[in-house]
Structure formats: C-alpha cells, structure tokens
Specification:
single chain; alpha+beta
Amino acid sequence: KVLNTVTADVEEALAAGKKTLVLNLDIGADSKASQKVIKAVQKIAPELAFMGISEEEVGSGGKILCFTIVPASVQESGLKANEWLKDVLDSVGGRGGGKPGNAQGQAPNCSDVDAVIAKAESFVNDAIAVA
C-alpha cells in the first residue's frame, strides 16, 4: 500500500521535473520497509534524491525514522545524503549516519513531522541552489 503511494508521488515529482523528493511515510520505524521504499524509488527514478520520514506511531510525537538516498548526479550538485540527514535529525535531537549516497537514522521524539519535512526541503533546496 505504501509503495503504491510512493510510486505515485515519485512519478509526479519526475513529471514536474524535480530532482529531490521528501515524503512522510506510514511505515513505522521499520528499516526493512525503508529498504523496500528505497529500492522502489531507485527503480522508478534513479536520478532522484529522496528522503523518507516515518513516525513509529503516527501523531504520537515519539520516535521517527529517517532515511535518504542521493544519486551521484545529484551529489555533484552539492547534496550529500549524510549531511542532509544530519542537518534534519540534528533539528530534533536525533542521530544517524551514512555515506554521501545513502544515510539513515532516528530521533527519539518528534512532535512536529511537518517541521522536519520543511527542514529537509529547505536544506536540499539550499544545497542544490549553491552548486
């Protein structure tokens, strides 16, 4: 069910000519599900930088999972997955790590997922605009 939504959102982003996409996903804190989402995104849009954010329990203000992929073509314009993830999770007291191409992490408490998504979009727009 979530993959259908992701597929539709990714195809919409591609049609709009976007190079990046941040989605609030309903997969709990399931890292296996996050890998399925990443595979689906890479299959449909191999040149799209993607960040998924998911609450363990929607609306709980509790733990969030955050994961991102950044293809080499987008890394060249200045966006690195590990820096993007760190910036976003630092804003809510979370931690994570990874490489320029992919990263993941968690935050123990997050009362405002929309603010986290706005932070992610702001960071990515700044990173690519500077390049």
